[in-house]
Amino acid sequence: MEQYDVIIIGAGTAGLSAAIYAARSGKRTLVLEGKSCGGQIINAKAVVNYPGIKQISGVDFAMGLYEQAVEAGAKVLFQKAVRMELADQKKIVATAKQNYACSAVILAMGAKNRPLGLEREAELTGSGVSYCATCDGAFYKGKKTAVVGGGNTALEDALVLSEYCQKVTLIHRRDSFRGEWQTVQELKERSNVEILTDTVVTALEGDRQLTGIRVRNLKQEKEWVLPVHGLFAAVGQIPQSDLVRDLVELDDYGYIKADESCRTSLPGIFAAGDCRTKEIRQLATAAADGVTAALAACQLA
Amino acid sequence: MEIKVITKETFETEVLQTKEPVLVDFFAEWCGPCKMLAPILHEIAEEKNDLKICKLDIDQDVDLALEYGVQAVPTMILFRQGEAAQKIVGLCSKDELLQQLNL
Ligand SMILES: Cc1cc2nc3c(=O)[nH]c(=O)nc-3n(C[C@H](O)[C@H](O)[C@H](O)COP(=O)(O)OP(=O)(O)OC[C@H]3O[C@@H](n4cnc5c(N)ncnc54)[C@H](O)[C@@H]3O)c2cc1C
Question: Is B9 exposed, middle or buried (0-12, 13-18, 19+ CB in 10 A)?
């Protein structure tokens, strides 16, 4: 079995930041990534709030981190971690291909978008249903779209889409928005934006491509079909913590519980970034977690 | 195997006349997902000795890209015996890529 000092699961901002520090500390460092490196931020057109960098595209930010980690000596492999177990002092991380052993594991699996929970949602994802307006919005130029959600992401998505869509309907289950008031005002001023509060989506219409959505007003108990080509879900996130569900303590929402040093309930296992319980989920906090977790892990490895 | 950068001048010999399967990555310098794909292709190139991987900058050879119906980047086309056998559009994981290409 291949041996490492530190294994990091997930090559997002937290994981790659951890990799830079672990590798630079001289530890044999492996990063496992199930998709492409960079994590969520590759979907952001521009990042303007990372301290020290005025503006950068999400992809360039991610590639910079990736190259920095590799140059520091970390090994990045595109394999999804599917199982983790403990064996004496060692931790074993398994992918479909191979098992790897190490002294310390850093969990940096991030979070992914919460589905709406509608029938055929997975089937129509990519064929009308999307979770990222910044990524997929351009495919709906001149078309009718809808956004579901009540937070800042939903508001921003609606704003972005209204720049080039024929019409944007913002749908929220409550009567007021959690997101910024300013943005709500801006949306109200746009002639091609319609806001439906107290309303939920109940079904997706269309065979292979979305053609409409069935919506219901909860107060008036009224249901009708809204013709749209694109439906953007912005109803929050779920942590990717399945891998360790039975190993470490999670909070009620599935986030991994960890202390100030990113230690989980199990010695030698750390959690960093969006997958752990914390207040602020941003690049800067993900990077900070990565650094903290790596240096704590290095003490064991 | 190394990933080769090809152009329309070398396309014929490097791709069409090659016996082994050739995966051509149609990319553009300005394309973000293409950059994310690069390390994945690199890893596949290191692992698979029976597969040749080439990359072609669509801005340098628009005509060639259009000839093969490339309308978005990244697009990957697997050529077998000079024939376009499989096409994948967009960024995907390594597993998805290998699965879709039956490799
Ligand atoms: C569209 C968008 C725009 C944003 N804009 C900003 C911004 O401008 N500024 C800002 O500060 N923040 C922004 N954020 C938030 C920021 O992207 C996140 O806080 C940050 O990405 C968290 O990093 P992470 O490493 O914890 O998790 P992620 O970025 O989610 O990375 C986790 C990685 O782990 C991988 N993974 C998961 N499970 C496994 C497994 N079992 N095996 C192997 N790999 C696995 C995933 O594929 C992923 O690559 C934005 C988010 C989005 C979606």
Answer: exposed
